[in-house]
Amino acid sequence: MARPSKAVDVMSSHLTIAEKKDRKEQEQKLKGGTDNITPSYYLIDRQKEVFQWLVTELEGADILSNLDAPSLSAFAFAQVQLEHCNDMINRNPDNLWDKQLMASREKLVKEVQRYTNEFCMSPQSRAKMGNLNILAGQKETDPLL
């Protein structure tokens, strides 16, 4: 299965200046606005807190748009459900032998990890973005680059 495409700012592959410019323009056209990133109606208070925390933390990376709100809501939902499963296990360690609970927890862990990767929140993704930001800064300040 092919890897999903990444935003041009977080790509590590080498593109020509023209290719980067074209990709950047297309991404900006498709990105949408950033003025209405709101949680979905079905989220409970704790899930809305997680949603707002995610938005606050990711705003600095300038990767969010209004189109990300449903995915962020799903992420917040899964994160809080995972917390609930973990709390159930902590309160009663015998729950480790509950097959349904552990199967649900395993699915939630995978879902949270997937969203973490999608929103560049893993340590590896952040390191890659940091290196790319450094390189972009060097290109802006160094006339030879």
Write up this protein.
With 145 residues, this protein is mainly α. Helix content is 63%, strand content 0%. The protein is built from five helices and no strands. Helix 2 packs across helix 3 and helix 3 runs antiparallel to helix 4. The radius of gyration is 19 Å and the shape is elongated. The model has no long low-confidence stretch (mean pLDDT 82).
Number of strands: 0
Instruction: Give the low-confidence spans.
Output: none
Q: Percent range for helical residues? A: 55-70%
Give the rounded overall mean pLDDT. Answer: 82
Shape: elongated
What Rg is obtained from the alpha carbons, in whole angstroms? 19 Å
Strand content: under 5%
What structural class is derived from the secondary structure elements? mainly alpha
Sheet with most strands: none
**What is the terminal-to-terminal distance?**
35 Å
SSE arrangement, N to C: HHHHH
Number of helices: 5
Question: Main traits of this protein?
Answer:
145 residues, mainly alpha
Task: Set down the secondary structure blueprint.
Layout lengths: L16 H15 L13 H15 L9 H23 L7 H20 L4 H19 L4
Helix pairs in contact: 2-3, 3-4
Summarize the structure.
With about 140 residues, this protein is mostly helical.
